[in-house]
Design goal:
This protein is α+β, with helices and mostly antiparallel strands. The protein contains four helices and four strands. It has one domain: 2-Layer Sandwich (60s Ribosomal Protein L30, Chain: A), CATH 3.30.1330.30.
Length: 85
């Protein structure tokens, strides 16, 4: 939120976009991800690779988490993921 207040164009934390999550993971920019348990294909892919620190949100928390698109992830550095999509 501090980045948003400062008017930063590029973020370190993204939420809600599976397109951006896929681009970040494929380009080895994703550091950590919080993902809803209903994103099964993404969860299986990350578990198979083991390249990203992943937290799967299940149960009651999963329903509330869907307000954020079911995925929130952190990058190693600021970048515009639209360049990779």
């Amino acid at each position: 939120m501090a980045d948003v207040q400062k008017g930063e164009a590029n973020a370190v934390v993204y939420s809600g976009s599976m397109k951006h999550a896929k681009a970040a993971r494929e380009n080895s920019m994703m550091k950590k991800v919080y993902v809803s348990s209903d994103k099964k294909k993404f969860v299986e892919a990350v578990r198979a690779e083991g390249d990203v620190e992943m937290f799967v949100i299940e149960g009651d928390g999963s329903e509330k988490f869907k307000d954020y698109g079911g995925i929130v992830f952190e990058l190693f550095y600021r970048t515009d993921l639209e360049m990779f999509c």
